[in-house]
Amino acid sequence: MAYLLASEVQQLLHNKFVVVLGDSVQRAVYKDLVLLLQKDCLLTTKQLRAKGELTFEQDTLVAGGQLDSLHNGVHYREVRQFCSEHHMVRFYFITRVYSEYVEDVLAELQSGEHAPDLVIINSCLWDLSRYGQSSWKSYLRNLENLFERLGQVLPESCLLVWNTAMPVGDKVYGGFLPPHPPPWPIPLRDFLVQANFYSSTEANKHGFDVLDLHFHFRHRAWKHLQSDGVHWNEHAHRQLSFLLLAHVAEAWGVELPCRSPPRTPRGSPPGDAPAWQWEQGQPHAASPLGSSPPPPKRRSLLGSPPAHLRLRPLLSPPPPLLLSPPPPPPFPCYLQDNDFASDHFFQSDQFYFHSDVPSPPQTEFASEADFTYGPQPPPPGFPSPCYKQRAPVVYRGFPRYCAPAPYMPWRGRPRRSKRWAPIRPESRPQ
Predict the structure, then answer these.
(1) Which domains, from first to last, does the chain contain?
(2) Contact residues for 155 (Cβ-Cβ < 8 A; gap 6+)
(3) 45-59, 151-165, 239-253, 352-366: which range is least confident on average?
(4) What is the pLDDT of residues 285-312, one digit of tens each?
(5) Which strands, in side-by-side order, build the sheet including 209-211?
(6) Average of pLDDT values for 214-240?
(7) Which helix (H) or strand (E) holds 215?
(8) Is 135 helix (H, G, I), strand (E, B) or coil?
(9) Which run of H or E residues covers position 16?
(10) Alpha carbon distance 145, 142 (integer Å)
(11) pTM for this structure?
């Protein structure tokens, strides 16, 4: 996972229009993204719990919220927008995955001055808990209608990312729950798994991207989940932002820097430290020199046996083999003619000798019956072999091994959208 700084996020989203649609969890996604576009720090607990405030980190409340009325009904509205010189992020609070209000939002995006470059959307908990006994069937039907309309409204250059619903606790206390929640056939945390499966399948069917947040946070609920069993703390949302931005960078063909998070001092407030200075485990205390302390040494469960109880090898190691040089040839070596050249040629770069003694040049020989005998030359220190067999090739290097990861750097062009272009009837001449 990539750990990004505010300057790198600004470069990634430079001149981009980002739209976030969803419930209170997606509102926290919007807030953390707006904060990360400006400075390297985490959200505070007060900022995460705030609802419908007039301003947050230089953004503007466009509609709903404190401008209208604060309530927990299905008709609650909240539209926020952060706009800088080169960035624009907008948030729409929705309580149903597809409705008349969602249709109005799509019409506004379609007729607006700027077309969205990135759309992040999710809706699940309100759909399953606030719309009666037939909420499951209506949710499946609305999913199909939503993705069909998104394929018609959004331009081909727009990247849509469907976020799956994040895990919930065993006991849920949320404002989205009615006073008497409907009896679910299975627990809500298991019901979300089925809803995420159908929603991601429908998104893939229409060619949209899916970011499985339920998979990434399935083992972190005990540490980053809030007491209400629905919302998450600032550390989880920063990790969510990193996952989302890494997915977007891969889709746009942008290579992110590979940076491991440094350790933070124990007891330091998370809001004061840089946003990327945290990790999944407990923070460790920093040493006075600024370097991380060495990891603790782990001892084996069973110690080494005493010397008198150690087993001896069954067989003694064989003695080393000593290769004696072959006897000198009974006749002097003459270079053979070009007519008797061998079919096998050796290249000097195919061998790599580990001995300090330089090897003599390779020479080919041929045995004929009309050789004349003469005085034998002195045997060389390291005789050259007189064989016509090809020697094995010793490779000096190995191919580079790249460890698998869920987000590998993309070094090519941005991938094209998987959606089919909408069919438009061509005008024919009269």
Answers:
(1) 6-252 (3.40.50.1110)
(2) 115
(3) 352-366
(4) 333 333 344 444 444 434 455 555 454 5
(5) 60-64, 78-83, 87-93, 16-22, 118-121, 159-163, 209-211
(6) 91
(7) helix 213-216
(8) helix
(9) strand 16-22
(10) 5
(11) 0.65
